[in-house]
Amino acid sequence: MANKKVERQLLLKAIVSVLRPLVRMIMGLVKFPELKLLLQSIYVEEAKRQLLAANPKKRPSNTDITVLTGIDSRQYERFSEYDPLPALFNNFDSYRGSPISEGALLSTWATSRLYRDRKTGRPKKIPIIGKGASIHRLVASHFPRGVTAQSVLRQLQKYGNVRSDGQMVRLISPVYLPPARDAVTLRSGLEAVGHHVLAVQNNYERGDEAQQFTQRTCWSSNIPEEKFNSGGKALKKLLAKQADQLQRKLEQLETGNKKSSGKLFGGGYYYIEADN
User: Fold this and answer.
1) How far apart, in Å, do the first and last CA atoms of the chain sit?
2) Which fold has domain 101-171?
3) In whole angstroms, how far apart are CA 223 and each of 219, 220, 273?
């Protein structure tokens, strides 16, 4: 029992070591409710996949999925009726029923009769504070207590969703999309992390060494400060050379092929410096 407890603690610490830099990187770009929706969807999809693999003739029941995932069956039933991922992946077009506060607020402003001009049918200019339609009322309806209208207004102005003259506010765009600092670098980097995790998963599930993927990490916490610059340059040069060799090998394997297997095939390199 003690060994199982220690193993679980080590597993949770390892998960934190993966999640912490990820959260640090996406902070301000992806809200926790969005990430929660993504995780819930992945948990349900993977539970279905594993249950079907174990018993292909039996359709996974809600109870089976709940036991495997820990997701309350009532939450799962609501999730089955309304899949939130299309709203997340398709430019955040629909936020109705979504816990993503800024997006839900903008959706209400763009679609609710209270916030639309009766003559034009378009979203109307509203005051920051007021008894009827106002920014204050929208914030009170979509955010937890303690969040002020001014703080949300500043966020929406920052991302170009609204314009304000200090008293009245006009809706510019109902699509809430915090800009990524470098979307291409972020996406390709996270895809590489996912590929690395696939190697770990394969090696964890397969005990046969012949079936395991190459997965090696070399690092040291005993390098003196004065060797960081020269040592870092040398390591980067070495990794770049090896990556070029890998790329050439893949290109050779692709040459002359009439059709693809459809399977991902390859490897990767990375260099880090971090506080221990």
Assistant:
1) 31
2) Arc Repressor Mutant, subunit A (1.10.10)
3) 10, 7, 11
CB 265 within 8 A of CB 250: yes
Task: Return per-residue pLDDT of the chain as tens, 276 residues.
Answer: 568 888 888 889 988 988 998 888 888 777 787 788 788 888 888 899 999 999 999 988 888 888 999 988 776 665 554 455 554 554 443 433 344 578 788 888 998 999 999 889 899 999 999 889 999 999 998 887 888 999 999 989 988 899 999 899 999 988 777 666 666 677 788 888 888 888 888 888 887 888 889 888 888 888 888 998 899 999 999 999 999 998 898 888 877 777 777 777 888 888 888 776
Global confidence as pTM? 0.61
As a whole number of angstroms, the distance between CA 138 and CA 242 comes to 55
Q: How many CB atoms lie within 10 A of CB 133?
A: 20
Q: What are the boundaries of each domain within the chain?
A: 2-89, 101-171, 181-211
Task: Give the separation between CA 137 and CA 121, rounded to whole angstroms.
Answer: 20
Give the helix ranges, DSSP H, for 27-165: 32-54, 62-69, 73-81, 85-89, 101-111, 135-142, 149-158
